[in-house]
Amino acid sequence: MERHLLLLAVSATFGVVAHSALSVTLLIVIASFLCFLHYSLGLSVKVVGIHLVMMVIFLGAASFSKHQNQTIYQGNESRFTITFTDQPNIDGHSLKGFIISEHGERLMLRYKMGSEQEKEKLGRILRIGLSCPAEGSLVVPDKQRNENGFDYQSYLKRKSTHWILKADSISFQACNVGGNSLVHSIRNLRMKGIAYIGENFPKESSGFVTALVFGDQTYIVEDDLTNYQRLGLVHLLAISGLHVSFLTGMLFYLGIRVGITRERMIIVLLIFLPVYMVLSGGSPSVVRSCLMAMLFFLLLLFKERVSAGSTIGLVYIALLFFRPNILYDIGFQLSFAVTFSIIISSSIFLRYPQKTLQVFIISIICQLAALPILLFHFYEASFLGVFLNVVYVPLYSIILLPFSLIALSCHVLSPSLGEPLIVILNFIFILCNKVASAASNVPLASIVFGKPHFFMLTLLVVSLLGLFLKWEESFKKSKWWCGMLIAVLFFQYHAQKLSPFGEVQIIDVGQGDSILIILPFNCGNYLIDTGGQITFPIEPWAESRKKFNTADNIVIPLLKSKGIHRLDKLILTHADADHAGSAKELIEHFKVEEIVIGGGSEEHYSDMDFVSIARDKNVQMSVIKRGDRWVADGAPFIVLNPHGKEENTNDSSIVLYTQLGGLSWLLTGDLEEEGERELLNAFPRLRADVLKVGHHGSKTSTSEPFLLQLQPKAALISAGKDNRYGHPHEDVLANLETNRIRVFRTDEDGSIIYKYYKRKGTFRKTIP
User: Most buried residue among 23, 63, 161, 554 by CB atoms closer than 10 A?
Assistant: First the structure.
């Protein structure tokens, strides 16, 4: 029964995937799976037919879900009546969150508050069920703008959300509260609980307590959350089976102790679990844990017993049938993969009598089960986390989770009684976070493998399944599969070194510049500029808890997805924030062999925060000027600028000429017309097939004489979508069009990628 349910769950998965990603490769995989069922497992043709029917049923469920997931809006509407149905997030001067319109359609609300008084007022009146008139515009969410980047549009669509409502005004004085349903009451209780923790717990621990009690990681300090993610410990901060087991066990024990019968306590728990599901945020891990517990107690009530494997199979199939899009939720994938691996591998760790060794084996199993998912989504894995989980899992489950609940309960009942407990709890969290911070800085604490190709991902999954199945018999029999797993990971780690393809990528960093050059066979990884945010003075009340950072949010994930472990050269064309503003974060996260800056502009970098970090890490700092050059993998890199100490910082930009993939390239930084004229005078025979347009397509660059001499075939413009400067300027675009130059621009096309093999290559856009 258990085996059949788990195999049916696999068939159901294929059915859902086939709806959104039907391809020849997927059909081959499905055919291979059906052959495996018939020839390897010995299932009859009739049973194999049932699996095929299962796939068709779930293909139909996914199709029906997509049919239901439609918008009624055209995009030109401006007046709405919005109802808050989920907890809104107030961060700095921004109010964000899912709302329901008067037509019952879900929208993502974004509203910028105008004053501190308005922010305080909203904090007092906002509640679930509040309906308010609003005016604004509907905006289509962004698609994936960089290779392997986050696709916000798909993410929202899978949550039945097609539009972002950018509200210009919300008439909060005209708001009213609708019917106070049970779900709304529970969600409002959750809001009050989160607010209470924020007001009464110290900053170091309030975010962690909120995550453990209410399943919301939003309020954890960003550096601490990053450390936990890198070390593979972030699962401890998500409500899962650990929390549900603890709470149900505690309630069941207390109920029995006060004289309530087992049957009545089971009924109490069956009522409590759906309430807790809503109270803790309803994440996929919470839903899975609560549904499994409810199914277990329901069967126990009727004196029926079902194995844990059958339970997880039934819950998985039910969730996938009613919510097919949940398959693409990372939390759903990790929760089921890890729980499933623990259940089927119970015979492995139970054969070891020592409890510490059992925890260590469970940690290994969990890390291995999560490995394909982590590499596919995050491109790296932490093997140090295997050892840290041995300490942190008992620490969180035995001490911090119960202590958080007790401290919160005591403080609600009697603040004077709860204060000492909060102080102790805060000290423990600070200690844990310091250890995590130190561990995350250990070399190889987190290892970057890059995003695996489908073939490599398949080999990884097959080797893990083989390892688990043979390990269940004996560890000696699993050695061959263990060797295969190591070989797959070794090959994936070194995949870039074995690649004969080169690449030039104009990264979409918004209003800024960042160009990645990858030479074949790992002969050189160059990053020209880092992008960065131009910041303006802002009042303290309007500052966000989590600030957007170009390096952390765009450049570093891209580099990791490409399997890049080091940067041979970090070339900063000039010191403007939109070109060099994220250098600090890149140097902290990556091994950088050399930082290159332009001659004559050294003093512009002296006060920048990355310089001291580079010095501490012994990163070589080089100054280049006109006439300097180097050759890598047969490709020349020639410095054409700077040649002196220019008054205009844009004209002091490093200008590079190179030949890659059969094309000549001129990369100009923020060079403007005066710099272009000087360049033409110095190099009257200069030609380039590809021009990286200077200064984001500003009117002050890319002059007609410059284009006439260079005679480029393609022009690349790096500019932010809907930027405030109006880049690229219409005159520049007209000049390019007049000269019949093909234009690629990041504001419309996303990142622009030229991939080549020897002397041939092709351009492609991330946004088709």
Answer: 554
pLDDT tens digits along 23-73: 898 999 999 999 989 888 888 999 999 999 999 999 999 999 999 999 999
> CA-to-CA distance for 597 and 743, rounded, in angstroms?
28
- For the stretch 263-279, pLDDT in tens is 899 999 999 999 999 99
Of 704, 639, 635, the closest CA to residue 669 belongs to 639
DSSP E strand boundaries for 557-662: 566-567, 569-571, 591-592, 594-598, 620-624, 629-632, 635-641, 655-660
135: which 2 tokens? 């005016």
Count the Cβ atoms, other than its own, within 10 Å of residue 176.
10
Q: How many CB atoms lie within 10 A of CB 193?
A: 18
Collapsing DSSP to helix, strand or coil, 370 comes out as helix
DSSP 8-state secondary structure symbol assigned to residue 453 = P
Phi then psi for 745, rounded to 5 degrees? Answer: -140, 135
User: In total, how many domains does the chain have?
Assistant: 4
Q: Considering Cα of 383, then 387, then 390, then 395, what sign does the dihedral take? A: negative
Contact 419, 407 (CB under 8 A): no
- Eight-state DSSP code of residue 729: P
Strand-pair category, 655-660 with 635-641: antiparallel
286, burial (CB in 10 Å: exposed 0-12, middle 13-18, buried 19+): buried
Dump strand ranges (E) for 299-440.
380-381
196 pLDDT band, cuts 50/70/90, is: very high
Nearest to 648 by CA among 608, 701, 719, 693: 701
Is 246 a member of any domain?
no
The 10 Å CB-count burial string (b at 16+, else e) for 50-85 is: ebbebbeebbebbeebeeebebeeeeeeeebbbbbb
- Residue-number span of the structural domain to which 547 is assigned: 497-765
Give the span between the Cα atoms of 229 and 206, in whole angstroms. Answer: 18
- State the pairing for strand pair 569-571/525-528: parallel
| Cα separation, 295 vs 139, whole angstroms | 42
DSSP at 94 = E
For residue 407, the SS3 value is helix
How many whole angstroms separate alpha carbon 223 and alpha carbon 509? 22
CATH at residue 596? 3.60.15.10
Q: Are 92 and 84 in contact (CB under 8 A)?
A: no
Looking at the domain assignment, is residue 436 inside a domain?
A: no
* Identity of residue 678: E
- Domain edge (last residue) among 442, 475, 493: 493
List Cβ neighbours of 566 (8 Å cut-off, separation of 6 or more).
525, 590, 591, 592, 593
pLDDT tens digits for range 139-183: 999 999 999 999 999 999 999 999 999 999 999 889 988 767 888
pTM for this prediction: 0.92
What radius of gyration do the chain's Cα atoms show? 29
Side-chain-facing half-sphere of 154: CA atoms under 13 Å:
12
Separation in Å, CA 259 to CA 109, 245, 265: 49, 21, 10
DSSP 766: S
- Pair 357, 458 in one domain: yes
Q: Can you tell me the distance from the alpha carbon of 36 to that of 758, in angstroms, rounded to the nearest whole number?
A: 41
Concatenated DSSP letters for 463-506? HHHHHHHHHHH-TGGGHHHHHHHHHHHHHHHTTGGG--EEEEEE
